[in-house]
């Protein structure tokens, strides 16, 4: 795995949530993701009654997931194909206390729906964190140079 890919997956795994939306609607909602770098996918646990799930019932659609974390030093726009999944084994693997908080009957709740995002590409900004950012801003004021806020790269999956 290239350094950029490794940086992306390592940092993404430590981020809890982002904003997910279908490109056709441009409406974004906060969602928790579960990274699966073995297959270049993100997984989401949501409810069957949501607009997202209703939209995906007719088939896969292109979507965008946006993450932003100063703590992890990752800002990314991630694109891919979203589709519903009935993979119970994957749901078993992903299920946790956070997911169970949303469903009255836990994992067996009939409203639980798994969504898979097969990644196509990502535009990524990787920084050294907020202290480094502040240092770079202060240094630029003294030296007159532009601050070095980290790496900017694109990934294709």
TrEMBL record:
Protein name listed in UniProt: Pyridoxamine 5'-phosphate oxidase family protein
Domain General stress protein FMN-binding split barrel span(s) in chain numbering: 3-148
InterPro entries in the record: Split_barrel_FMN-bd, Stress-Dev_Protein, YdaG_split_barrel_FMN-bd
Highest taxon of source: Bacteria
Pfam family, one: Pyrid_ox_like
UniProt xrefs under SUPFAM superfamilies: FMN-binding split barrel
Gene3D superfamilies xrefs: Electron Transport, Fmn-binding Protein, Chain A (2.30.110.10)
């Amino acid at each position: 795995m290239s350094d950029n890919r490794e940086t992306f997956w390592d940092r993404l795994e430590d981020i809890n949530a982002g904003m997910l939306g279908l490109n056709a609607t441009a409406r974004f909602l906060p969602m928790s993701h579960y990274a699966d770098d073995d297959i270049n996918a993100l997984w989401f646990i949501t409810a069957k009654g949501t607009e997202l799930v209703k939209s995906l019932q007719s088939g896969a659609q292109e979507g965008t997931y946006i993450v932003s974390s100063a703590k992890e030093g990752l800002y990314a726009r991630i694109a891919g194909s979203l589709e519903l999944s009935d993979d119970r084994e994957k749901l078993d693997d992903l299920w946790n206390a956070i997911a169970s908080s949303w469903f009255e009957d836990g994992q067996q709740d009939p409203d639980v729906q798994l969504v898979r995002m097969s990644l196509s590409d990502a535009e990524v900004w990787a920084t050294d964190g907020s202290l480094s950012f502040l240092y770079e801003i202060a240094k630029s004021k003294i030296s007159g140079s532009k601050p070095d806020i980290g790496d900017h790269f694109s990934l294709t999956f």
